[in-house]
Amino acid sequence: MIWFTWRQVRSQTVITAAALAAFGVLLLVTAGIITDLYAEVAACHSGCESVVSTFLARFRASAAFPTYLAALGAMYLLPLLLGIFGGAPLIARELESGTHRLVWNQSVTRTRWLAVRLAAGVAIAVTSTGLLSWAVTVWSQRVDSASQDRVIPLLFGSRGILPVAYALFAFLLGVTTGMLLRKVVPAIALTLALYVGSVVAMPLWVRAHLVPPVHDTIALTADNVQGLSLSPSSGQMTVVGAETANAWTVGNQTILPDGSTFTGPADLSACGPEASPTTCKEWLASLHLRQDVLYHPDSHFWPLQWAEAGLFVGLAVLLGAFCFWWVRRRIV
C-alpha cells in the first residue's frame, strides 16, 4: 500500500522538491545583498532611526526586493496549491472514475487506504511548507527586525509556523470537498473559495481577538493628526490620529476628555474650507482630545502565531476525522 501510494504521489513530490530547491538557491544568492546592506544597522547601537530608514530604502531599491515579494507570494500560494492539486483529487478522482469499488474490495481496508493516503499528503504538505517558511523567515529576519512590521496582516501569514497550519488545513479541506462532491474540478473550485475566504476572514474578524490587544490612551496633538473629514453643512467632524508605530493597530478612536467619541461640531473659522490645515490642527489640539488605541505590538507575534496555528490545526483534525467517518460509513 505504501509503495502504491508513493507511485501515485511521486510526480508531485518531485515537482515540489525541485521548485523548493530552485527557490532556495534564489534565497541564498540574494541573502548576501541583505547582509551587506544591513552592516550599518548591525554596527549602530544608539540613535539608529535614520540608519534603519536608510537600510529599508536601499533594500527596496536593491535586487533582493523582487525576491522578497516573490517569497511573500509563495508563502500564501503554496498551501493553496497543496489543497487544490493535492487534497481535492485525493478521493474525488477515485469516486469520479469509479475505481474506489475495485480499491476497497482488495485486502486493504478503507481505513488503512485513507490513513496511508492522508499520511503521505500531510507529510508532503507539512514538510514542503515548513521548509519554505523556515527559509523565508530566516532570509527576511534582518528586514523584519528593521521594519518591525511582521505582525501586520500582509506579512503575518507568511512567517513562522502559520503557513504550515495553513497547508495542513488546505490539504484536508481539499480532501473533504472532493469526498463530498465526488468531482475533481468542482472540488478544486470549492476548495479555492473556502480556503481563500478562511484566510481572508482571519485578519478581518478573528485574529485581533485571539490575544488581548494593548490598550493605550494618548493625547492627540497637532503632530499626530493623520486625517480628518468635515461636513460643512452639519459641522460634524471625524478625526483620525496616527497609528502606533511598529504594531498592528486594530482600533483607533478620537475621544473627548469625558471618554465619549468626538464628532464635532467643528469651528468652521478654524477648520472650514478657507482655513489652513495648520490652523485646524492647532484648534483640535486646544480641545484636549485623546486617542483611544488598541494594537498588537511586535511582541505579540508568536502568541498570535501559536493561537491561529492551533485554530487551523484543530479545524484540519476535525476535517480528517470527518473524512474517516464518511469513507467508512457513507460511501458505497
Automatic annotation (TrEMBL):
Keyword Ligase listed: no
Coiled-coil annotated residue ranges, if any: none
Transmembrane segments: 12-34, 68-92, 113-136, 156-175, 187-206, 309-327
Keyword Lipoprotein: no
UniProtKB keywords: Membrane, Transmembrane, Transmembrane helix
Superkingdom: Bacteria
Record protein name field: ABC transporter permease
Species this chain originates from: Hamadaea flava
